[in-house]
Amino acid sequence: MALFIGLMSGTSMDAVDAALVELNDDSPVLRGSAGLPLPAELRRELLDLHRNRNNALEKLARLDVEMGRLFAATVHALLYKTGIDASRVTAIGSHGQTVYHQPSGPYPTSMQIGDPNLIAELTGITTIADFRRRDIGAGGQGAPLVPAFHGAVFRSAGKERVILNIGGIANITLLPADQGHAVSGFDTGPGNALMDGWALEHLGTPRDEDGHWAASGTVNNHLLTALLDDPYFSLPPPKSTGREHFNLDWLREAMGNAGMKNLPPQDVQATLCELTATSITRSISDFAPRARQILICGGGVHNKALFQRIVALNNTREIAPTTAFGIDPDWVEAMAFAWLAKRTLEGKPGNLPSVTGARREVVLGGIYPGGNQSV
Fold first, then answer.
1. 131 and 173, same structural domain?
2. What are 368's strand-pairing partners?
3. In terms of DSSP H, where are the helices of 155-303?
4. Within 10 A of 212 (CB to CB), how many other CB atoms are there?
5. N or C: which end of the chain has fewer CB within 10 A?
6. d(Cα 14, Cα 206) in Å, to the nearest integer?
């Protein structure tokens, strides 16, 4: 029995997720899961690092250590919860916490913090991390990486499917029924990040629980059109994005340009919810028009207002959480990084050039040996 742990902290910056995954012949089975919330002050500082990059070097170094310790603590919580000794775990695949993602321009890169040296040392388990930059080095976007896992787990010869992951940023994976056609996918735009940020600013809560606040507002179509006019939405894939682009400063600028500065906050939230649902739906219609099934994972699956709008806008398609196919939607990404860690240890590529735009398949990440592996 080969056990791996996948660690994930997404764009929403709300918690670290750890998934204990049994991987035999690439067939994943979730054996346990645990999560630890990001302390409020740590989350505030991470968000500040995105907004204010002046004098950031000391803060970046400190947050790298703090996140490394939190990742290791989450692993310990998972092992305690499942009763599994660290010596039985082959490796940890740690996504890290993204603090900068800029895959285009003269200096393309993506930076995730959460020191893997510290994770390996504190857990004693070999850790694989820094998954994105090798793909960028090969000319790719470095994202999304999870479509390779989606293809291995959810692809069906009988039905064309779309896997929709709604984290801080939303992304889709297109799984053609024809096995001769490559898996593809890309970031569609905002997922939860703008709604979470707007809720924090106006409600003092890190999210709009169940989408209740959005449901209390009215979509402003003038603002929605202005937001959808952003050039990112019309870019062809491969493409990826993050908080560097879609943030509250971007929203406020669009509101000002559209003469919508004084909209009721709940109407802005309703419009942001519609922005996510509409940009996702347009992406699916443009690039997977024959898909009749959408499987949803990620934290956005719990936003009832958003889920209902996606269902309404895709009323000719079957829509269900990945639970219906045996994988809890909250743990798909963490499981994916356990799967990617196994690929790396085996010397197998983890990226899909058809998704990221890389020149070739490459083995992803660096390996940081723990006490369970010698070099």
1. no
2. 127
3. 193-203, 212-216, 221-228, 248-257, 265-287
4. 13
5. C
6. 8
